[in-house]
Amino acid sequence: MKFTVSQSSLMKALSVVAKGMGTNSTLPILSGIYVRAEAGQLEFQTNNLAISIRHYIPANVEEEGEAVISGKVLTNIVKTLPDAAVTFEGTGRTVVISCDKSTFRLNTLNPADWSGFPEVAPERSIELPSELLSHMVDKVYRVTSKETSRPILQGILLTVEDNTIRLVATDSFRLAVCDSSVEAAPGEAFRAIVGGATFHDVLTMPSMTDTLLIGTTESQVVFTFGNTTFVARRIEGNFPDYKQLLPPTCATAVELSVAEFSAALKRVSVIAQQNASVRFDIDADAGLMRLSASSPEQGESSEVISCGIEGQSLAIALNYHYVFDCVNAVSENKDLRLELQGSVQPGIFKCNGKVNYLYLLMPVRL
Questions:
Q1: What would the pLDDT profile of 211-223 be if each residue is shown by its tens digit?
Q2: At 109, which helix (H) or strand (E)?
Q3: DNA polymerase III beta sliding clamp N-terminal domain spans which residues (predicted)?
Q4: How far is CA 248 from its chain centroid?
Q5: Of 91, 185, 173, whose CA–CA distance to 129 is shortest?
Q6: Which pLDDT value is given to residue 339?
Q7: Which domains are assigned to the chain?
Q8: Distance between CA 363 and CA 366 in Å, rounded?
């Protein structure tokens, strides 16, 4: 095996497949990167048993061949090299990497032990604009659960129906829903549950193209874009029926300025380091909302902001960390609406625009 490729192109390829490398595996082969040089291009593969990634780049191939190289060592070498031509020459179970005045001789693993890339034939697929999808995933993926005991809550529900794309995530304490119109090809409604971290990783890859093709089989979800294919396990099970949590009306509605509300919450929450609860006292008659926090060790804080209020006066306490996740998700918007039923019912934040956003949050004890 012998080929030459630019350092920048090689570094980009390694960053694309890095997410598929095993980190704590007892099988050394899973922490490697499979490289095959063939017909003017390089194929890179990684596989950690949960996800598999394949990526192609052009290269000057003098001798075809394949090798499995330690992913960590290879990445550490390439990132230190100058942006110049990098030559690989492999013989037997070693590979020599040379660039400018630097030379490295690495031991390699047997490519015959590599499991090969899974050949997946999606039963359903849909092509979506990646920029819009990335924007929407950013709004909901932090709401996915970190608990491994309920895998379904680690996923994002993706549905496309009647030219509307919708993403839903919940960790049982809060719920995030966002939807937007999209020109999708006519056909059956598309529905899949995709791991939140996986969805985010795919959309932030440096090889992402303008559109992303998502396909599903009974047990896997496949992302295809440009010269990259990303295969992950599909999360199985029934996603919670979130629609039953959304009340048709509200007792109180508060119209907030995102910038003013965010700044006030940031100041008041300084006192709430030990107790993450912030109290919201809404005075409908005066058109004011008072934010307050208290801590036995630190003291108290409060701030009053003017806002448009419809309905009755009431008070509710919310976890300010969760409220900040909502505020950060709508930071590009000017206005935010808070709808309340009472002090022990969930609070619902809403924001409309190109992407409509809803964030439901369970209250904490006053």
A1: 999 999 988 999 9
A2: none
A3: 1-114
A4: 30
A5: 185
A6: 96
A7: 2-113 (3.10.150.10), 124-242 (3.10.150.10), 246-361 (3.10.150.10)
A8: 9
Phi-psi category of 299—alpha, beta or left, where left has phi over 0 and alpha has psi -120 to 50?
A: left
CB 310 within 8 A of CB 253: yes
Segments in the chain forming alpha helices (H): 7-17, 71-80, 130-140, 196-203, 258-268, 320-329
Q: How far apart are CA 225 and CA 210, in angstroms?
A: 8
Q: Helices (H), strands (E): how many in the chain?
A: 6, 26
Residue 274 scores a pLDDT above 80: no
User: Rounded CA gap, 33 and 99, in Å?
Assistant: 20
Q: Which amino acid is at 123?
A: E
Angle, vertex CA 238, rays to CA 237 and CA 243, nearest 5: 160
- Residue range 72-119, pLDDT digits in tens: 999 999 999 999 999 999 998 999 999 999 999 999 999 999 998 998
What is the DSSP-derived secondary structure letter of residue 364?
B
pTM given for the model: 0.91
> What is the pLDDT at residue 185?
65
